[in-house]
Amino acid sequence: MPGDILTGKWNQMKGNMKKWWGDLTDDDITYINGDRQKLYGKLQERYGWDKARTEMEVNKRLKEYDPTYTPM
């Protein structure tokens, strides 16, 4: 999506991914490669969260990363 912080700042953010979600592997992070839907899928797979919980967790972390972030 144009303007998506995850895509736009992926290289800077991927270092935080394992800090935020320790169950993600390096292979998971490589696979995600800034794609929001892939991130959702991996988090659901690793943590067993439903879609709403996953979106909430991702939005919370993106807001921490960039206080100007507005959830999509």
Mean pLDDT: 90
Question: Describe the biggest sheet?
Answer: none
Specify the CATH architecture.
Answer: Orthogonal Bundle
Cα-based radius of gyration, to the nearest Å: 11 Å
CATH superfamily: YjbJ
Cα separation of the termini:
10 Å
CATH topology: Protein Yjbj, Chain: A
Counting DSSP H or I runs of 4 or more residues, the number of helices is: 5
CATH top level is Mainly Alpha
Give the beta-strand count.
Answer: 0
Helix-strand makeup class: mainly alpha
Helix-strand string: HHHHH
Q: Compute the number of structural domains.
A: 1
Helix content: 55-70%
Strand content: under 5%
Which stretches of 5+ consecutive residues score pLDDT under 50? none
- Which geometry do the CA atoms define? globular
Descriptive notes:
With 72 residues, this protein is mainly alpha-helical. It has one domain: YjbJ (Protein Yjbj, Chain: A, Orthogonal Bundle). Helix content is 68%, strand content 0%. The protein contains five helices and no strands. α3 packs antiparallel against α4. The radius of gyration is 11 Å and the shape is globular. The mean pLDDT is 90.
